[in-house]
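Pinned message: reference record for Cadmium-translocating P-type ATPase
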Amino acid sequence: MKQSYKSETCFHCELPIPKGFDKTLQVSGEERAFCCEGCLAVADMIVQNSLEDYYKFRTESGEKPDAIVDLENELKAFDQADVQQEFIVSQTDNNNNILLYADQIRCSACAWLLERTLSRLQGVSSIQVNVSAQVISLSWNPESIKLSRILKQAHKMGYSATPYKQEEVLLKQKQIQKQWLKRLGLAGLGMMQVMMFAVALYLGAFSGMSSDFQWLMRSVSFLVSTPVLLYSGYPFYSSAFAALKNRQLNMDVPITLALIVAYSASMWAFFTHSGEVYFDSVTMFIFFLLIGRYIEFRVRQRVSERVYKGNVNKINYAEKYEPDTDSYRAITTTLVQEGDLLLVRAGKQVAVDGTLVSDTAELDVSMLNGEFMPSTLSKGQQVLAGSINHHQPFMMQATASDKGSYWDKLLQLQEAALLDKPKIALLADQIARYFVLAILCIASLVAAYWISVGSDDALWITLSVLVVSCPCALSLATPVAMTCSILSFNKNNILIKGQDFLQSTNEVTDIVFDKTGTLTLGKLSVDTIEVYSEQSKDTVLALIAALEHRSEHPIAKAFAKYHSPDVEMDSVNFLPFKGVEGSRAGKSYYFGNSQNAASQQLLEQCGDDADALYLTEDSKVIARVTLSDTLREEADEVCQNLSNKGYTLHLLSGDPSSQVQNLAEKIGFEHWQNDVKPEDKLDYIQKLQDQQKKVLVVGDGVNDAPIMAAANASVAMAAAADITRTSADCYLMADNLRNVEFALTRSKKTQSVIKQNLAWSLGYNFSMIPLAAMGYIPPYIAAIGMSLSSVVVVVNSLRLKE
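Predicted structure (tokens):
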């Protein structure tokens, strides 16, 4: 026999059911009512596909779909190849990979429903949903199914998925920010007004106050607190009710319970002219919680606004050689095909991967591997997208399209790591899950006892139990501490994405550092100089500086501070891939590598070193110079402090030179590797995690982005690439390694303060509940005690702002 289900709201979207519309459907063995044909059709589709568990596990109401219309004309534009090229992330085998955005994705049930339903479509290879970013990673075979059909299916379920567009996401984030500000502004204004009257009411309880004045103050408090409760507190109610529908208890459940109980008791006292009102507690509670939520949203927004489509300064055009007209034509990178001949002018960026056709080229690959030293390539060697041409123009042949470049592979590694990254639940959530149930049981028992003995104060005693045990302090224990900690991070020029970083860094056992730009400044400086003539070192450095004075090469910048107006060179000539030559006072000088040094015998005596540079005077070597990346002033101290605190330090660098080993030995790294590729770094991190290690990564290069996303926690340096900042959990706005040590220390202190807050709030409740249950604490004292317990938590948390 069918069970009847009568409701004034739609079972799917929970909106009111219009009069005269009477359509139902059996879902999970019960007859459910719906508000329109659209919701009925979506529910029927879910039932027909045996996906009824969606309604059991969802934590948000379903999105109300538009009336069932034909969406093919609207979405078929996405089937066109030229349109898809603007959105396709990559192409593997016969599949296209794309990112979709749907702001209706709000919970894990949404992700579950989308993944289960769309994956059943023939031709859909894989689908992953990132709930926090509201992004769908989709892979499909265009020969088996059209993209428009997939999008139409998502639309029919109430998710208006469309190809990811950064500008649309930013617009929606701005709208959400405005909503937070409106709620916070109303709560702050309401709290200030109600608190003024609350002080008078509390004082009047001891000194006496006429009933007329008391009624007036309560009336104004009621009028002010009501919109604060209904509008500003809405995010907490929606979350709490969703959790209850999912048969779970999250932190918003005790928050909502506290607000409803306090407000209901105040309403009762106000309209019956008996007891105490707690409108001040309601507004204060909402205001404090909204501050924490808003700050967390803003911090997360500032870092994650470029997720997946970060501005990585990627060039969007290339110059293609046209053999028919013997000319060059600028085309968009999406039109570049394998085999095309491309011209890369001096100072320009390489658009796609390819093979060098010209004899030689010198490229800046710092955006790819973080290493600032130019890379010299010969004909036939591989040229990677993202490299920058340092010197004369060169020709290359494309070996991959725009979507198959090394650059895009880095993006894919990052996106995959972001999708797989686990989220750590807060300790307070676990406690509250059982705490609320216990309080409800205790309050029920207290009410039953006092009613059974015929006490007239049964209601107020029960309310005292609920108010005095109201989990305000418990609910504030975590968010206020997190907020104060985040403010201290911002004060020290450290930006973090969210609260997960504060907990994950507390568990870190191993720290992996990049070299260039992280432990070093990414600037060359003179390491050693050996003089083989009668001239002084200062004179030799001045001669070199004169030769390099007009160059912007990284090597030239290392000698800029040694330049003297009294030492100038004539006829300076730059020799690609070798060095620079010039003349002074009738003598010829050359500074560069050993390829142009004339005296090979003297070179052998000096010790020919591929990393060394030589100064010659009239073809005779007069000095040998070695350069090294400048170590950060604080690097040694910070690493020693971290090691003394028990952290295991690792050094992974893409630099193939011996400088990595020298740096590791100088600072004291036991674990180090040089010439490490991004995929090797990722494998290294995963092996550490397989050993149950908790890994923190500190880096700055694009090649660090994948391991930033995969690590348990990650920190990006101030000069890090945009994609690296996006992947990292924390971003240093000041270029100082000491902030890494500060972040680790403050995270541990934050967890300690949270535990103190939880211990205090639970200890307070366990000691006050018995007194309230015995009738020794009137409701207004319970309200004061509840407020004071919250103040203790807030004051303790404020220590984190220092």
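Pinned by admin. Summary line: The first strand starts at residue 23 and ends at 27.
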